[in-house]
Amino acid sequence: MSRKFSLTRSNLRDAVLVLSCISAYFFPVSLLRIGISLCLLGAGCFLHFLVKGVLIRNTVLCREGIYTFTRHPYYTANYLIDIGFCLLSGNTYLVLAYPFLFFWAYGPTLRKEERYLTSAYGDQYVRYSLATAQVLPDRESMHRWRDFLKGFSISRISNRERARIARFCIGAATILLLHDIREEGLARV
Predict the structure, then answer these.
(1) For residue 95, pLDDT beyond 90
(2) How is 122-188 classified by DSSP, letter by letter?
(3) Is the dihedral of CA 34, 39, 43, 46 positive or negative?
(4) What is the mean pLDDT of residues 8-13?
(5) What value does the mean pLDDT take over residues 124-133?
(6) Is residue 43 pLDDT above 80, yes or no?
(7) What range defines the domain where residue 105 resides?
(8) Quick check: 172 and 20 in contact, CB under 8 A?
(9) Are 132 and 68 in contact, with CB atoms under 8 Å apart?
(10) Residue 35 and which of 127, 162, 176, 179 are 20 to 30 A apart at CA?
(11) How far, in whole angstroms, is CA 28 from its chain's centroid?
(12) CATH number of the domain within which 146 lies
């Protein structure tokens, strides 16, 4: 029985990391690109942390704090982290392809979550969805920057989330190591 590969949000990061590691061995990367990618990775990790500190899953409709910027800030964080890995790889083609891969992989999940939230919260969610960007913040949502910590509680951050952020850092370090191996060869590592 053969299984057909389907790109989903659960396997997109794995694909990005594998492609980034392979690319790092073949494509050079500038210091500027490393700096930008590490800033994006840091911003994505920070957003992951914020989202988990505000989110009260399946209990209330989260509309404050980081949720004033986008309806799905966790996916915004994933986007920043993955595009950071793509940039760090040195492979421009991967950077250009990633936005399409993101919406291809996340599209079904976003539609499913939007349907669920609409059915669970009705007009309250519809009004929120009309006033708030879906994944990438818009100019209007940026005016609410003072509220981004509202509703945050450090007690909601689990060890699982801390481990996830550590894995992101390890992924970036691995890609950088592969760049170093490409430049210096195995003898100097």
Answers:
(1) yes
(2) THHHHHHHHHSBSSS--HHHHTTGGGTTTT--GGG--HHHHHHHHHHHHHHHHHHHHHHHHHH-GGG
(3) positive
(4) 88
(5) 92
(6) yes
(7) 10-188
(8) no
(9) yes
(10) 162
(11) 24
(12) 1.20.120
Is residue 3 included in any domain, yes or no?
A: no
Determine the Cα–Cα distance for residues 24 and 28; give it in Å rounded to an integer. 7
> Is residue 19 assigned to a domain?
yes
Residue 189 pLDDT > 50: no
Does residue 134 fall inside a structural domain? yes
Total number of domains in the chain: 1
The pLDDT, as a whole number, for residue 1 is: 55
Location of structure tokens 């050079």 = 28
Q: Which two tokens stand for residue 176?
A: 């950088």
Q: What is the pTM of this model?
A: 0.90
Report yes or no on 18 lying in a domain.
Answer: yes
| Neighbouring residues of 132: CB distance < 8 A, sequence distance ≥ 6 | 63, 67, 68, 69, 70, 71, 141
